[in-house]
Amino acid sequence: MAKKKTKFMCRDCGYESPKWMGRCPGCGEWNTMDEEVEIVSKNTRGAFRTEAGVASKASPITSVETQEEPRVETAFGELNRVLGGGVVPGSLILIGGDPGIGKSTLLLQVSSLLAEKGRRVLYISGEESVRQTKLRAERIGVTSPELYIYSETDMAHIRQSIDELKPEFVIVDSIQTVHHPDITSAPGSVSQVRECTAELMRIAKTTGTAIFLVGHVTKEGQIAGPRLLEHMVDTVLYFEGERHHTYRILRSVKNRFGSTNEMAIFEMLQSGLKEVLNPSELFLQERSQGSAGSTVVASMEGTRPILVEIQALVTQSSFNYPKRMATGLDQNRVSLLMAVLEKRMNMLLQTSDAYIKVAGGVKLDEPAIDLAVLMSIVSSYRDAAVGAGDVFIGEVGLTGEIRRVSRIEQRVQEAKKLGFRRAIIPSSNMGGWDYPEGITVVGVETVADALKEAFK
């Protein structure tokens, strides 16, 4: 006989407690402990079984045969790159994003592209009926006999449908609407999300079916449900962007089969999502040349270099405590760079408000953008524009030195491709590679050297 056990679990960190507490001891957050009922069975507790029902045995690592995981490519080259080269059979992929951002549209298009290649795909919708899904599919031109649509929220029925149809790919939209019949809590609760994801993970690993999960996000921008949901899946993708703008960014934050720094950009059209193959040109097409406070940096997003405009506005403050605001950047990094300018270059910035923004809605977090951010602040402070054909690459140290960055050759090559005429980079990056023709490469050692080159 199975026994029911009541416990309380933190939806943020997964901390478990036999009684309710207002504040979680694990993460320190308030009002995050949710009640859940755990069903304990002596026959299944703690055992991972194969299809034959026999428990697996430990093996020496030297006796395990390895082979490269085969990947299934979709017609979206950008999506293939974010996934690490394609979809790995048997993988569990979680896609999160704001409501209405385009998660369902993306997966419906991916389902159609896979079905057109002869792959059997099962699209499970817990939020729409079959007719509603059909209407949305007709709007974006999705028609394929190998694409099956199923509207269901019961995990037992979903498992039965997968066993009968035996698809190669399954899409569950969304995991918060699915409920397990053995769990008494409501759909979307901590226990329901965890158990349903665990069941889908067992199906994926034992049958080799690749499963996509759609996850809702909270107002803080994190995937709703317990954080351990992200630990259970193989890949976590975030679909970002403003609903009132046409461009969407698909970013990988976890990937067991590829890089976690890749990014893909799509454009939302009436007929669905379209790939943006040249994002650098997209981010710079509205740049106003000759404006003070505007600089361009060559940033690396995974294996791809992207040119992005950084804008700064430095004005005299009307308050005793000046404001420091950053969009698309770490605000602490902006404060650090302004402190370097005050200490090493004797600039009086402590009475000025500073507003820094990365144009295009991109988020940058690598050290190589330091020099461009610093130059945009100085440009706005002096009300003097830098050269329209200049691109700045480099990390800034606390003593005012410009430090080496990685993949400098790809960054400069991308700048040359977009028509930039000069690249200001760290001196330590000058040797060991061939400079592309048509662009002048200037090496600087300190912030003072960079300012002389930019404003001479």
Task: Describe what you observe in this structure.
With 456 residues, the protein is an alpha/beta fold. Helix content is 25%, strand content 26%. The chain contains 11 helices and 21 strands. It has helices at residues 77-82, 103-116, 130-139, 155-165, 190-207, 228-232, 279-284, 331-344, 370-382, 408-417, 447-454; strands at 3-10, 16-17, 33-40, 92-97, 121-125, 147-151, 169-173, 210-215, 235-240, 247-255, 263-269, 272-275, 294-301, 304-316, 324-327, 352-358, 390-392, 395-396, 402-403, 422-426, 440-444. The strands form 5 sheets. Strands 6-5-7-8-4-9-10-11-12 form a 9-stranded mixed β-sheet, with helices on both faces. A 4-stranded mixed β-sheet has the order 13-14-16-15. A hairpin with a 5-residue loop joins strand 1 (3-10) and strand 2 (16-17). Helix 8 crosses helix 9 (370-382). It is globular. Mean pLDDT is 87; it is low at 43-54.
